[in-house]
């Protein structure tokens, strides 16, 4: 199940589709099933490097702590390569 949270702004209408697609891509890259919740959020970012918005991917697996990956850019601009790189630390088994 993907839970989606969005910030208000000019791209608010496109955000749900972009977040759903990003969540589906993250789910496939992580190889997780429906029992895992993927949450995609775009939040305001104060760092000039991120262009005003940052994308946060939360992965909530049963029996594990919530894990996060951050991308310093708006969610609609995240590429597969960038998402894959950000998710690499989350591929390791829980310790």
Sum this structure up briefly.
By secondary structure, the protein is an alpha+beta fold. It has helices at 15-30, 80-87, and strands at 2-5, 37-44, 53-60, 67-71. It has a four-stranded mixed beta sheet with strand order 1-2-3-4, covered by helices on one side.
Molecular structure report:
By secondary structure, this protein is an alpha+beta fold. 25% of the residues lie in helices and 26% in strands. The protein has 2 helices and 4 strands; from the N terminus they run E-H-E-E-E-H. The chain has helices spanning 15-30, 80-87; strands at 2-5, 37-44, 53-60, 67-71. A 4-stranded mixed beta sheet has the order 1-2-3-4, covered by helices on one side. The longest helix has 16 residues, at 15-30. The chain is globular and about 35 Å long. The two termini are 24 Å apart. The model has no long low-confidence stretch (mean pLDDT 84).
- How are strands sequenced across the largest beta sheet? 1-2-3-4
Going by helix content, strand content and strand pairing, the class is alpha+beta
Number of strands: 4
Identify the overall geometry: globular
In N-to-C order, the SSE pattern is EHEEEH
Largest sheet data: 4 strands, mixed
Strand content: 25-35%
- Secondary structure tally, helices: 2
Which helices and strands occur, and which strands form pairs?
Blueprint: E1 2-5, H1 15-30, E2 37-44, E3 53-60, E4 67-71, H2 80-87
Parallel strand pairs: 1-2
Antiparallel strand pairs: 2-3, 3-4
Helix pairs in contact: 1-2
